[in-house]
Amino acid sequence: MIGRTLGRSGLEVSAIGLGCCWGLSHGYGPAVDHQDGVTLIRTSPASGLGSDISQAAQRIAPKAGSAFIQATAQEGRAWARLGAAAETRAALSRVEALVSPLPMPERPEHHYRYDPPKAQVYVATTLSWLGDKAAEGLARQVLAAIEAPEARPRPRRAALARLDLALALTAANKHDEAAGVTLEAIRSGRLAPVDGRRAREIVLAVAERGVPETAELAEAYQAACGGGSRPGLP
After folding, report:
1. Phi-psi region of 189 (alpha: psi -120 to 50; beta: other; left: phi over 0)
2. CA-to-CA distance for 154 and 190, rounded, in angstroms?
3. How far apart are the C-alpha atoms of 171 and 124, rounded to whole Å?
4. Cβ contact 158:188 at 8 Å
């Protein structure tokens, strides 16, 4: 295998990557089926690819910085998508230990600055992907905090929080509410193309249950995420 040295870190990586973010989602045509994507990762030469990459990032990132916390959180997400509950919770516990002592940064909206509220958002997403029973309550708390009257408006974060809540609701057999919450997220105009897979997962779950709002939700999804007019980034 041909390798490359990653920056000045000394980390040796493959010259050709799998490209999961774009290759399996929106970047090169229609997204592949979720289960097909999981199967591809699990049967690749580096089985557990997402967690392996995140663990490699933890080895080279400064231990007190946001990059290390982000890599740990991403490891949890990777395990959640693979359905590995014990590994997911172990990663989330490490994130909690890293984040809980942190003060609120001067610029909490900074994409590369970790803070306790941002950690809560990541935990809600991860537990929703895992299908954990605690996901619904946490997702509701996160959404309420984002939309509190005194909070700085963050419409994109609110839209993603609604997707987390909707996915948790499908796991709790509350598909009618999930349909309404997902419709709000889609119609907000704050979802990016990469969010289409998350929305599609909920739309399919709602459609399978025959929820009355299925047709309306599917139409909104198709217009926003399925090749029609895409909502812009904030």
Report:
1. left
2. 10
3. 13
4. yes
| Cα–Cα distance measured from residue 124 to residue 184, given in angstroms and rounded to the nearest whole number | 18
pLDDT at 141: 95
pLDDT over 50 (residue 28)? no
Domain ranges of the chain: 133-234
Q: How many helices (H) and strands (E) does the chain have?
A: 11, 2
Question: Among candidates 107, 108, 194, which has minimal Cα distance to 159?
Answer: 194
Side-chain-side CA neighbours of 195 within 13 Å: the count stands at: 25
Cβ proximity of 76 and 93 under 8 Å:
no
Average pLDDT over residues 160-180: 95
Instruction: Give pLDDT, residue 62.
Output: 77
3-class state of residue 145 by DSSP = helix
CA 125 to chain CA mean position, Å: 5
Q: What are phi and psi of 11, to 5 degrees?
A: -75, 125
Of the pLDDT bands very low, low, confident and very high (cuts 50, 70, 90), residue 206 is very high
- As a whole number of angstroms, the distance between CA 98 and CA 196 comes to 31
